[in-house]
Design brief:
Layout: H1 2-25, E1 49-53, H2 57-62, H3 64-73, E2 78-83, H4 86-95, E3 104-108, H5 114-124, E4 128-132, H6 138-146, E5 151-156, H7 160-169, H8 171-179, E6 183-186, H9 189-197, H10 220-230, E7 235-241, H11 246-257, E8 264-269, H12 275-281, E9 286-287, E10 299-301, H13 308-314, E11 317-320, H14 333-336, E12 342-344, H15 352-360, E13 364-366, H16 370-382, H17 384-398, H18 404-413
Parallel strand pairs: 1-2, 1-4, 2-3, 4-5, 5-6, 7-8, 7-11, 8-10, 9-10, 11-12, 12-13
Helix pairs in contact: 3-18, 5-6, 10-13, 11-16, 16-17
């Protein structure tokens, strides 16, 4: 199977180049950095180097506490962080702790083509390679193993669907790939069971590193400007919405404003480029990307990047997008970490454990549709003490993993061959 994947990816390289160029035209790739996808652009620093790969925004931001702890414990070690999306590449550098910015380099991850991976590894020569969640790229992992690079799988995730596919289509390859990791830190007990059934051996105690992330930041001056504009109005935030949800959000908001005329509904689309379309659905609502403030309007479109921290701090309650449509939901912990009561729809498969923990603690409520969303929000606006209790419960949930970054950092640094980690 590994030989088939090797030659298959090699033969597919011309098609992959064409696909990358097409993605440039859709804004999905950075044309100035496209060669990084083929493994070019190495600029390895002297000394020890730990490589961490995270697929996109959520995964890359989740490792920031781990990165900070690694930097504190190993002052002579540098870090390479790779991701696969333009959004993550833009946002991650702004979130790196100031004391680490000279020690962290970002690159786009090379695609899983043997020649491209070889070029990447020849240039960077990482001492340890860490992959986050479900990033099991066969040619990449096998190439690292062939060079003797210690491998770690952090916040390891194996959904029931992925487990079924690996077990039925490539159980031998799954066993070989998972068996090559010196450390696997599963996200949950369920993930640990599935990984073990597929052949994982070096399993650490379960723990979700996304619980340990720092609260989303907010520019104080921008926050003050918004607070001055909004005043005492109650705020309903629909965060990270997907197509097909905005209409439902607006329907719920319209039902509520008949009873709560001062209510401000803020819609933050998951992809800011949808701002114009969402604004049109809302009858030409003001858009933050155009420099406008909410004013006295009933709906405001927050179509900018990296500002959700502002709106969670303003929200009376937050609905988590990607959950009224079958997308699988977005991260509810970002709201919980700021003490914001959480609502979400029936589709939270991507964050099943986090959403279950919030529901069990009374920090969140699940709503099946727009009508239930409106009814639930109305109840929270009528009884603000219940919303406050939900916010307090949310803070309690996310405090449960405060020691996890330290435990993971110690385990990763133990993989560094040779000298003690702090000696470089």
């Amino acid at each position: 199977m590994s030989g088939v994947l090797h030659w298959g990816a090699t033969m597919a390289a011309p098609l992959l180049r064409w696909t990358l160029r097409r993605r440039v035209g859709r804004g999905k790739e950075d044309p100035a950095r496209l060669r990084e996808r083929e493994g070019f652009g190495a600029a390895r620093p002297e000394g020890r180097l730990i490589w961490l790969h995270a697929a996109s925004v959520g995964e890359s931001l989740s490792i920031l506490p781990l990165l900070a702890e690694l930097g504190r414990r190993a002052p002579a070690v540098d870090f390479l962080v790779t991701t696969g999306t333009v959004t993550s590449a833009r946002l991650l550098p702004t979130r790196i702790p100031p004391e680490l910015r000279g020690r962290v380099t970002h690159r786009y991850a090379p695609l899983d083509v043997p020649e491209w991976i070889t070029r990447f590894l020849d240039g960077w020569r990482p001492d340890v390679a860490c992959f986050v969640e479900s990033e099991l790229w066969p040619n990449t992992l096998l190439a690292c193993a062939a060079r003797g690079i210690p491998l770690a799988l952090l916040n390891a995730r194996m959904s029931q669907r992925s487990y079924g596919r690996w077990r039925s289509l490539a159980p031998g390859l799954a066993r070989r790939l998972l068996g090559g990791f010196a450390l696997i830190a599963p996200r949950s007990a369920e993930d640990a069971q599935r990984l073990a059934a597929l052949g994982a051996r070096e399993l650490a105690a379960p723990g979700d590193i996304k619980l340990a992330a720092e609260p989303l930041p907010a520019d104080p001056a921008k926050l003050e400007a918004l607070r001055g504009c909004i005043g005492a109005r109650p705020v309903f935030l629909a965060a990270s919405t997907h197509p097909g949800e905005d209409e439902q959000i607006l329907a719920a908001a319209a039902e509520l404003t008949s009873r709560w005329p001062a209510l401000l509904t803020i819609i933050a689309p998951r992809h800011p480029e949808r701002g114009a379309a969402v604004s049109a659905l809302a009858g030409g609502a003001a858009r933050r990307s155009e420099g406008k403030l909410p004013g006295v309007a009933a709906v405001y479109i927050a179509d900018t990047m990296g500002e959700l921290g502002l709106f969670y701090r303003l929200a009376t309650c937050a609905f988590i997008g990607g959950s009224l449509v079958p997308h699988g939901g977005q991260n509810p912990l970002e709201a919980a970490r700021l003490g914001c009561p959480v609502l979400f729809g029936p589709h939270m498969e991507n964050f099943a454990d986090a959403s279950a923990a919030l529901l069990a603690a009374g920090a969140a409520r699940r709503v099946p549709d727009a009508a239930a969303l409106a009814a639930t929000l109305s109840g929270m606006l009528t009884r603000p003490e219940e919303a406050a209790a939900m916010g307090s419960a949310a803070l309690h949930v996310v405090s449960a993993a405060t020691d996890l970054p330290g435990r993971l950092a110690g385990a990763v640094l133990a993989l560094l061959p040779g000298k003690a980690a702090g000696q470089g």
